[in-house]
Amino acid sequence: MGNGEKLSDVQTLLKDRGDRYGDSDILTGILLNETFSFMVIGMPPLTRMVVFYHWMQILSKLCRLVWSPNDMDTWQDIAGYTQLALNHLKEQEEPESQKVYAGPVLHT
Predict the structure, then answer these.
(1) Inter-residue contact 54 to 18 (CB < 8 Å)
(2) How remote is the C-alpha of 44 from its chain's centroid?
(3) Helices marked H in 22-102
(4) What are phi and psi of 95, to 5 degrees?
(5) Could you count the other beta carbons within 10 Å of the beta carbon of residue 82?
(6) What is the DSSP letter of 20?
(7) Domain spans in the chain, listed from the N-terminal domain onward
(8) What is the pTM of this model?
(9) Would you give the distance in Å from CA 56 to the centre of its chain?
(10) Chunked in runs of 10, what are the mean pLDDT values of the chain (108 residues)?
């Protein structure tokens, strides 16, 4: 597949998403801009980074639902990102001796 074909595939994907979800990316950006500073106040740095990522993804999916409220994939994505955030928060509550190693540990 050449670069021209890849670009065409990306353009097709963007058009499909635009037709399906409208301006959800713009709405997500506006909402993120307005709420980011409130989101991070009082959170430890690593929690802020990981939880904010999940929160941002959920917000993006909620914005998509404005244009396509019956899209099952979007609802499943929201459930998935919610579960990932819960898993992360639960991991933080477990004593170090009970944690199962799941890869490199980042220290802040």
Answers:
(1) no
(2) 19
(3) 24-40, 45-67, 72-93
(4) -60, 150
(5) 15
(6) H
(7) 22-94
(8) 0.62
(9) 5
(10) 73 81 81 69 65 85 91 94 89 62 47
